[in-house]
Amino acid sequence: MAPPCAAHLVEVFSSVQGEGPEVGTSTLFVRFAECDLRCSWCDTPQSWLRRARCRLELERGSCRFEVRENPLPLADLIAAAERLELARHRWVSLTGGEPLLQPEALVELARALRGRGPGLWLETHGLHAAALGPVLPLLDCVSMDWKLASDVRRESDAKGAPVAPFHDAHEAFLAVARAAPRVVVKLVITPASEDAELDEALERITRTHPDACVLLQPVTPFGQVKQRPSAARLLALERRFSRRLADVRVIPQLHPVLGAL
Fold it and tell me: Is the whole-model pTM more than 0.85?
């Protein structure tokens, strides 16, 4: 494990938020390496494993990068963020991979970034509730996925074996996350998404945090997923969720329009 003053990263770069309720807003992305899930539609498989090196954008909007060794010292990470005009961004997205797999580094980074201008946005798969607690007071938004077993498995799952639902772990995570100033719960909808698992997610969100912003995100075809769900399917789900929740939105990803991830 990296020491608290360093982190295993994939990249640091400046762009605009590509999904969710803040889509299109200026965002500095800090992408942590390593993930313990395997989503069939994942568009960043390069973040699944820790790597010997990471890349840091040289200038805001330049798409030019330098390569550095992992784990990257916290001081170097902050310097890279400042080089990208940190204070001119609306958000810093702490994303992955899964940032909560490096909880000490995440807390140290969030503490160092706090009060420098942008809000701190944690993007997480929403399964590690114990790791969320220490960093939660430093965050402005927790954006968690609600993974559906129809399209997601754990890294440790045997191939071909039935995948256990994630509902219990997600509900426990949401119960902790609800203390954040803002909470977003994202469900990626694919043609394989089943009514039973969506209804179960709806039931648990309703009883745990009905005021969360719930995002129904049509999948962007990638990896093993080749098609989007139909408009009729998405609109029907929006009606079903809106009957019980205060803030439900259908928002596709901006990435295909920008031609980048």
Answer: yes
Cβ atoms of 57 and 37 closer than 8 Å: no
Burial of residue 223 (number of CB atoms within 10 Å: 0-12, 13-18, 19+): middle
Parse the chain into domains and list their residue ranges: 8-258
Q: pLDDT tens digit string along 37-93?
A: 999 988 889 999 999 999 999 999 999 999 999 999 999 999 999 999 999 999 999
Please choose, from the candidates 175, 179, 181, 183, the residue with its C-alpha nearest in 3D space to the C-alpha of residue 127: 175
Using alpha carbons only, what angle is made at residue 37 by residues 31 and 38, rounded to the nearest 5 degrees? Answer: 100
Q: Give 18's DSSP letter.
A: -
> What are the distances in angstroms from CA 97 to CA 51, 77, 128?
12, 17, 13
* Number of neighbouring beta carbons within 10 Å of residue 71: 20
Q: Rounded to whole angstroms, what are the CA distances from 148 to 41, 115, 203, 216, 218? A: 12, 36, 14, 12, 13
Domain 8-258: give its CATH superfamily: Aldolase class I (3.20.20.70)
Q: What is the dihedral of CA 165, 166, 169, 175, to 10 degrees?
A: -120
Asked if residue 177 lies in contact with residue 126, where contact means CB atoms within 8 angstroms, the answer is yes
Q: CA of 176: how far to CAs of 7, 92, 144, 208, 220, in Å?
A: 24, 21, 12, 10, 29
